[in-house]
């Protein structure tokens, strides 16, 4: 099986994060994830997407009749029960049989498939192999950010080694080889994974290095780095 195919990798990574990839297939994928950076990127992408989904949806209590219909469809109640009764018990009135348990599992699988179908296209367009990469590290050589330079954006991961500065922002800069003024690429988040748009100038100038500065909230007030903390070079792939 060719795990380097983007569509296959997308499918396996999404199933892995959702928990629907099981048994030997899950063990093989976990072994591959330890050794392959592309697999790690795919897993991190799906984790970030699903985490955003989970935190952005406001909980809503469904009407009692909805719970009744769910119980009926899963086999927890019989057709003779009154579906119009607004009272819903917080306890399952009978222990589901093995057959009913399979109904529950099937329902979860359908829900997972729906999530995958909605998000798969976005993954296939966003998850691309980088053209070049850069890694920012501190004095102890601990990674702070990794930057994957792709066709249309910069895919950036911040690590737990980064010192959080709630009162400030970190800003990313291009240092032109010509000696010209640094060019801002945008603000860096202090945790998680995120993307920044890749400006046209990125491919138009010769880049000597990338730099990170510490700035007041909102970024540099002057259009130039206030205090440069880290620099690194791009590595072409």
Overview of this structure, please?
The protein has 237 residues and is an alpha+beta fold. The chain folds into 2 domains: 1-60 and 96-127, no CATH class; 132-236, Immunoglobulin-like. Helices cover 36% and strands 24% of the residues. It is built from 5 helices and 9 strands; from the N terminus they run αααααβββββββββ. The protein has a 5-stranded antiparallel β-sheet, covered by helices on one side. A 4-stranded antiparallel β-sheet has the order 5-4-7-8, with no helix packed on it. Strand 2 (143-149) and strand 3 (153-158) form a beta hairpin. Helix 2 (23-35) packs across helix 3. The longest helix has 29 residues, at 98-126. It starts with 5 loop residues before the first helix and ends with a strand.
Shape: elongated
Low-confidence stretches: 86-96, 121-129
- The share of residues in extended strands comes to 15-25%
Count the DSSP helices: 5
Strand ordering within the main sheet: 6-3-2-1-9
Helix content: 25-40%
Task: Please sum up the structure shown.
About 35% of the residues lie in helices and about 25% in strands. By secondary structure, the chain is α+β, with helices and mostly antiparallel strands. The strands form two sheets. A five-stranded antiparallel beta sheet has the order 6-3-2-1-9, covered by helices on one side. A four-stranded antiparallel beta sheet has the order 5-4-7-8, with no helix packed on it.
